[in-house]
């Protein structure tokens, strides 16, 4: 269901939270699953080992038979693994994303942001913020972190756009995923022959299985630029629409981390990344979910749960609440969340300081939102200054 208001979850999801927070719902292919819309219920499921993240399991809530066939044929990436395999895979790479290591990247991220803003200001006005800043910043950062040549960014950005767009036939989306995996496998083979000091190179030196590493590289490359790019666009739009909030952010840099946290909660762009399937009978919210039944986590609605967030439909950049599930929760919580937070903080602080007259060049009602994509965002954001 689409967000009829770009700032709000679908009205039907809000009604479920009010009337039936654990509800049996029908999927587009005619199958059914349980939809959870309360924050506490979703956090409980995401920390309960009786629920599986394995997309190959019977009952996992995928919307088409083609998607089920694709996941059953492919080797699962880290987000589709259960214990103990998931813990082993995550521990092998989690050290690459510590707060200390991410903070060490700040100077380079700052340089990338400044260069992108320089180019935007030197170009035509109005400009599209998505192509000028939102997409290149996280793309450059994740490429350098992984050791992927940025010269290939058009290739993987176009494939990830295809992969995440629900309106594109499954066979085409599967082909796009295969192309990125094959690209990553080739890059890993090249780095095996000629070692490099980057994330992929270090994982090769650890002896990580090449096929497993290709899956990890695929996951980090796609997730590492798509999600942050969309948050840059949506966050900029929301702040430009709220002059008082923007003024508070400009006046006090200490506000920015809390503002970032609130924007993450408010938009919850990767809403369905945390779906699960029950491995055994479990009671959730007073409802018995039986083994083999799928669970859909309406994370965007949960992040407005009035029991957890007072006035949750209001964007309050001073709120700073970090118990949201925008990054998921539990063992599968987003690996790159520290990097995403730092990128967003640097972008917002730098953009509004260097371009104080920045303004939207189109009404919000006319903007092209990604209602047909697996990750919510904007296809373009016209801005002027």
Principal-axis shape equals globular
Side-by-side strand order of the widest sheet:
1-2-8-5-3
The tally of helices reads 16
**Structural class of the helices, strands and pairings?**
alpha+beta
Question: What is the mean predicted local confidence, pLDDT?
Answer: 92
- What's the quaternary structure here? single chain
Separation of termini?
35 Å
Major sheet characteristics:
5 strands, mixed
> Roughly what percent helix?
40-55%
Features:
alpha+beta; five-stranded mixed β-sheet; 16 helices
Question: How are the SSEs placed, and which strands pair?
Answer:
Blueprint lengths: L10 H9 L2 E5 L5 E5 L2 H8 L4 E2 L12 H9 L11 H9 L5 H6 L1 H17 L4 E2 H6 L1 H11 L6 H12 L5 H24 L5 H7 L4 H31 L2 H9 L4 H12 L8 E3 L3 E3 L2 E3 L4 E4 L1 H4 L34 H18 L4 E2 L21 E3 L1
Parallel strand pairs: 2-8
Antiparallel strand pairs: 1-2, 3-5, 4-10, 5-8, 6-7, 9-10
Helix pairs in contact: 6-8, 6-16, 8-12, 9-10, 9-12, 10-12, 12-14, 12-16, 14-16
Characterization of this structure:
The chain is an alpha+beta fold and 385 residues long. The chain has helices spanning 11-19, 39-46, 65-73, 85-93, 99-104, 106-122, 129-134, 136-146, 153-164, 170-193, 199-205, 210-240, 243-251, 256-267, 299-302, 337-354; strands spanning 22-26, 32-36, 51-52, 127-128, 276-278, 282-284, 287-289, 294-297, 359-360, 382-384. The strands form three sheets. It has a five-stranded mixed sheet, covered by helices on one side. A three-stranded antiparallel sheet has the order 4-10-9. Strands 6-7 form a two-stranded antiparallel ribbon. The radius of gyration is 20 Å and the shape is globular.
